[in-house]
Amino acid sequence: MNVGSYFWGQFGANKTQAANMADMAVNDAKRVGLKEGSVIALDYEDGATRDKAANTEAIMVFMKAIEKSNYKVMLYSGAYYMKTNIDYEKIGKEFGAV
């Protein structure tokens, strides 16, 4: 059975916090024995700013850090929240589908 991880992202548009939270997610994954190549899902549903581009950049910082640590990454959010606060097309072009 494939197992993944879920991380509640609370960094809004703050790229430094996004990077720190990505480190936390990876450290937690390693601590519990999640194999490299497994999925770490970012749940981004709270804390977004009115700056869609800044929110998107912070999300991408998180996602790139997860990929750099040899895990797959995916973004999870509600449809309305994603359409309102995130440039999901930019993220899709960069990360594709899991």
UniProtKB/TrEMBL annotation:
Pfam families attached to this UniProt entry: Glyco_hydro_25
Family matches, as InterPro entries: GH, Glyco_hydro_25
Origin superkingdom: Bacteria
GO biological process: cell wall macromolecule catabolic process; peptidoglycan catabolic process
GO molecular function, one term: lysozyme activity
Family statement drawn from the similarity comment of this UniProt entry: Belongs to the glycosyl hydrolase 25 family.
Protein name as annotated: CAZy families CBM50|GH25 protein
